[in-house]
Amino acid sequence: MNNKMLIILLATMCIFAAGCIGDSGDDVDGGETNVSDDVISGDIPDENVSEDISENVSEEIIEPRIYSITLDHYLSRPALLEINKGDTVYWNNRQNSGDRKRFTLVSEDGLWDDHIINYGMPFNYTFTEEGTYNYSILGQPRMDGTVIVK
Predict the structure, then answer these.
(1) Is the peptide bond preceding residue 78 cis, with omega within 30 degrees of 0?
(2) pLDDT digit string (tens) for 95-136?
(3) Does the pLDDT value for residue 143 go beyond 70?
C-alpha cells in the first residue's frame, strides 16, 4: 500500500512539474509567429514610434549639497570650489584678529548685492545656473575665489 501511495505522489509531482516549466504563456495564437513585412524590411510602423525616447533615458538625481568657504588669516579657503547646480555655498567669517574683523563679500558676476559678513556669521547662496562665478572680499586681494557650477 505504501508503494502505491509513493507512486501516485511521484506521478502527481511529475505532472505538476511539467505544468510549471516549458510554455511561458506568451504565445496566444497557437505557436505561429506573425511578423509584418514592414518590420522585416526595416520599416517601423508609425504606431510603434509614439513612445517618447526621453522616457527611456534615466537621469541621475543628485541631491543638493552644502559647501563651506572659510574666511580666515586673510585667505579664502578653498579659493576654487567645484559644485553641482542646486548646491549651496556658505561663506564663514572666522577671522579673529582681536577686533573680530568684518568682511564685505562681493559677487563679481552680480549674483547678490555686496554683503557684510560679521565675525561668526555666515552668508549663503544657492547656485541655480551652471557657470563660473567669481567673488572677492572688498579691500582684501588675497581673499578672492571662484565657484564652478556644473
Answers:
(1) yes
(2) 876 767 899 999 999 999 999 999 988 999 999 999 999 999
(3) yes
Asked if pLDDT for residue 56 goes beyond 90, the answer is no
Provide the greatest CA pair distance for the chain: 104
How many of the other CB atoms lie within 10 Å of CB of 93?
A: 22
First to last CA, the chain: 79
> Quick check: pTM over 0.90?
no
Q: Which grid cell is 77? A: 579657503
Residue type present at position 61 = I
